[in-house]
Amino acid sequence: MSFKLLPSEWQDWLRDNVAKGCSDNSILTLMLKNGFKLPVATKALEEVRSGEMDLVARVPQARPSVAIEHNRIVCGDGHEVRVLTHMKEPYTVYFEHVLTDAECDEMIALSDAQLTKSTVVDMELGTSVPHAHRTSTGCSFKRAEWPLIDCIEQRLAALVNWPVEHGEGLQILRYEQGGEYRAHHDYFNPAHPGSQKHVAEAGQRVGTIIMYLSDVDEGGGTTMPTIGFEVRPRKGSALFFCNVDAYGAIDPMTLHAGVPVVKGVKYIATKWLREKEF
What we know:
single chain, alpha+beta, nine-stranded antiparallel β-sheet, 7 helices
């Protein structure tokens, strides 16, 4: 159903405007101006008009989560991770010591010989394409491709309480001086046709984990501009956030960006968590 794919605030907005007696034309005009495609907007409106939205009432959905009542979390391999910062909306946790210095160095060594120009997902076609807003090089590893990769993936699964089988392969990125990734969302926006291909494969990207593999002398942070939050790269630390809210709707507040590196080289490892087995 198209209605269920809308962000939660748009679900509420659509319900409210239908209840107020607003015309279809005025509702669709505003939705199109805000980036929704006509077929998605039209179908969602039809579902609300016909009462089908009652079948998709807002009920809590499973998503990754952290045992934030503890300041220190011991993962299944005995590795101890420290919780530094937590926000409820968007659901965000910043960790220290997710990786050891040796693990960071080994990850960099595994990736350096494989780095190629980074790409983004084309919103219309769903394919991977280069983009001027992402100036980095990177590579991806299959799940458990190396013993170290397997160890880290198992640790992350325990840390955020999400099955390792529901994770995409680790992506390693290198940002040199001036390198950045401008503000974007990691979720697949249902307003764009290219998203349908990815959601059909393994569901939505419900969570993101960014692990910092190197210290950076200046710049290179990760910022969430909508909420005025930024973390700076610290070797071994990690930023985790849910891309969906508690009801499974995509969360626009997870807009984030990789701040340009001013001095030094930034390496990160990104893990995307999917709704279903990937």
